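Lab meeting notes turned into a lecture example. A postdoc, R.K., suggested we walk through two folding results consecutively so the class can see how the record format repeats. The first protein's sequence and structure tokens come next.
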Amino acid sequence: MTSSQELEVDAYILASSRLKTTSRGYKALKILLEQGNLLYWCLGKDNTLELAKVLIYLNFRYEHVSGGLQLRENSKLDYYYLVMYRNKPKPKVYQQESKEHRLGKMDSEEGKLGWNERRFTQ
């Protein structure tokens, strides 16, 4: 995975986390993505577990280790292909043949005067 792809994944996760940029959770998530791990003493155990709920909401793979959270190996690569660029099936477009349907008209009216033209010719 290239560094530009990693930065793209980081930006996507931070934007879709719905955390305020000035909050402690946003800064902790940024540290987790940059460093690869986050210890309990940075946020406290309860707030770190709340951050884990955000990661679960985002379908981002991580693991609990003694003392904090750690990203799994290739978790950014998996997120890049499985979530960000999932191949969504395109809906099939059925094209109907364009035919003129005359509803309730048995004979063709070509060459006949319409009601508007009849009014002005009399």
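The second example is placed directly after the first for contrast:
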Amino acid sequence: MSEFLTPPTPESSFNGHGAIKAIEGSSVHRLTSGQVVIDLQTAVKELVENSLDAGATSIDVRFKNCGLKSIEVVDNGSGISEKDFDSIAPHF
């Protein structure tokens, strides 16, 4: 399980009347933003969609060795806020 998701406890999942509470927005985002990328086409699609989601109006996709060595996406979107850096990738 991801270190960013904490399993719900009975106290946090129910409102005291047996009804299920809605998942908070930040948890929904983390649950739905995970993607399984199985090929180059899907990887590029996801990267371009990220650019569009960030409001980019200019997107440049560059491949080294037909994408086998690297894929680079440069855009003019809003980027990732510093407060979200820790949720992108684990620290080494």
